């Protein structure tokens, strides 16, 4: 629409310039014709003065009228006629008086015999603002007007002419050619600007890709620090407890702690393996996932945190929940991050008031899972930015847990959202397709 408007504007300006130039040429041509007409009329009238000086009362009127058709009557001047001013006789005629004779002159004949008189729409001769003769259409005012007084004491007339532009002779073909030219220019400029814009976008994409790669490396590094911190802390706690029990010679209680440390070590190994898969391949191996065992494993991994916070777990995952295809380590990591976030959100709760509820149910094309906690909920700012990298409301937090969780959910073609629940805390709702290769509905 913008290109069309520019084309219309340029075409209109070109047509206007051509029209003005052509109309100016027409005006100059008509002005030249008016100057010629004025010269011829002045010559005709000056002839009348010469004739008066040559005629006498004995001159033959017929010979005079034959030589000068505009002279209708030649007679001896009447005493009442002035010898200095013409006497109007009506219908474009007037008496021109000399010393001895008077001439009745027909101005219609004077004007009609001149070739330039046909070049004008209206032609007039005035005397003292009184029209003597009018040729052409006098009912309307012409677009162009020319006026000039005829020099002479005996015939002090004023010549006036009018004409209109000849619209038929405007340069219509040139206007059409200019319209085509502007269309080609606009098409060429548009193509050039589009090409230039594509080049700029390509350069920006290349720069953005480089920045994204560097940013991704930073996020991966920060994410691995975030994910490895919890199992390493757990291993340290288990080993310190085992050493304490060993000093107390309570060897029977050491084995479960070492087994838990082994589980956390395997978790670190799985995280590193998963990282290598992400960096070397876009394909993630999918397996049928039964949600209940995965949730039980997450509870075991966070057993210390759950016991420290005296957290009540409400499990509403049905036994007949159908499995879905996904990456097991990814689903475990998602649930781990959500549960850890719920635990940390309820650290300031009253004793034995912390709780987490997990529920799941099948939909037409996948599994919907909700995780609700009894914390204070999310602030308005947190609701808007909870999945942004490095956004955190916790002192000392990295702000990567929820960002990584969303990345993993979206990597499985799922969806995740956060909201506050009246009378409870925050609720995260997730949707996983039965096959992770399917798209979010």
UniProtKB/TrEMBL annotation:
Any one Pfam family match given in the protein's UniProt record, by short name: HisKA
Database matches in InterPro entries: HATPase_C_sf, HATPase_dom, His_kinase_dom, HisK_dim/P_dom, HisK_dim/P_sf, Sig_transdc_His_kin-like_C
Keyword Signal: yes
Catalytic activity: ATP + protein L-histidine = ADP + protein N-phospho-L-histidine
Molecular function via GO: kinase activity
Transmembrane annotation, as ranges: 170-189
UniProt domain Histidine kinase: residue ranges: 223-436
Signal peptide segment: 1-17
Enzyme Commission number(s) from the entry: 2.7.13.3
Entry keyword Oxidoreductase: no
Keywords from the named record: ATP-binding, Kinase, Membrane, Nucleotide-binding, Phosphoprotein, Signal, Transferase, Transmembrane, Transmembrane helix, Two-component regulatory system
Origin superkingdom: Bacteria
PANTHER family for the chain: PEROXIDE STRESS-ACTIVATED HISTIDINE KINASE MAK3 (PTHR43065:SF10), SENSOR HISTIDINE KINASE (PTHR43065)
Protein's recorded name: histidine kinase
Native source species: Symbiopectobacterium purcellii
Lineage: Bacteria, Pseudomonadati, Pseudomonadota, Gammaproteobacteria, Enterobacterales
């Amino acid at each position: 629409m913008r290109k069309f408007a520019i084309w219309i504007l340029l075409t209109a300006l070109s047509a206007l310039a051509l029209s003005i130039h052509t109309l100016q040429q027409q005006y100059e041509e008509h002005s030249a014709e008016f100057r010629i007409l004025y010269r011829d009329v002045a010559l005709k009238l000056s002839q009348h003065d010469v004739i008066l000086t040559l005629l006498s009362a004995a001159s033959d009127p017929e010979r005079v009228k034959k030589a000068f058709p505009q002279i209708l009557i030649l007679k001896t001047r009447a005493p009442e006629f002035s010898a200095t001013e013409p006497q109007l006789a009506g219908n474009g005629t007037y008496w021109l008086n000399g010393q001895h004779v008077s001439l009745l002159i027909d101005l219609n004949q004077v004007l009609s015999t001149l070739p330039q008189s046909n070049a004008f729409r209206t032609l007039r001769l005035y005397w003292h603002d009184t029209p003597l003769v009018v040729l052409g259409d006098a009912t309307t005012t012409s677009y162009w007007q020319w006026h000039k007084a005829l020099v002479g004491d005996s015939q002090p007339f004023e010549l006036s002419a009018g004409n209109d532009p000849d619209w038929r002779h405007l340069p219509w073909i040139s206007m059409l050619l200019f319209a085509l030219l502007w269309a080609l220019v606009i098409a060429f400029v548009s193509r050039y600007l589009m090409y230039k814009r594509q080049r700029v976008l390509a350069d920006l994409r290349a720069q953005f890709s480089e920045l994204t790669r560097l940013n991704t490396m930073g996020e991966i590094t920060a994410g691995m620090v975030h994910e490895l911190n919890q199992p390493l802390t757990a291993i340290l706690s288990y080993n310190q407890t085992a050493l304490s029990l060993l000093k107390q010679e309570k060897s029977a209680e050491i084995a479960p702690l070492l087994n838990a440390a082994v589980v956390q070590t395997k978790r670190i190994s799985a995280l590193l393996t998963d990282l290598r898969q992400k960096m070397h391949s876009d394909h993630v191996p999918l397996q049928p996932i039964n949600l209940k065992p995965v949730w039980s494993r997450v509870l075991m991994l966070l057993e210390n945190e759950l016991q420290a916070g005296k957290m009540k777990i409400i499990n509403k995952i049905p036994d007949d929940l159908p499995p879905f295809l996904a990456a097991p380590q990814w689903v475990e990591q998602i649930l781990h991050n959500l549960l850890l976030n719920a635990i940390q959100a309820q650290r300031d709760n009253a004793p034995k008031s912390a709780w987490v509820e997990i529920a799941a149910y099948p939909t037409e094309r996948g599994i919907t899972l909700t995780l609700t906690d009894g914390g204070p909920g999310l602030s308005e700012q947190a609701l808007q930015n909870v999945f942004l990298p490095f956004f955190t409301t916790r002192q000392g937090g990295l702000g990567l847990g929820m960002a990584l969780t969303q990345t993993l959910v979206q990597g499985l073609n799922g969806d995740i959202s956060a909201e506050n629940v009246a009378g409870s805390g925050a609720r995260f709702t997730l949707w996983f397709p039965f096959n992770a290769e399917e798209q979010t509905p």
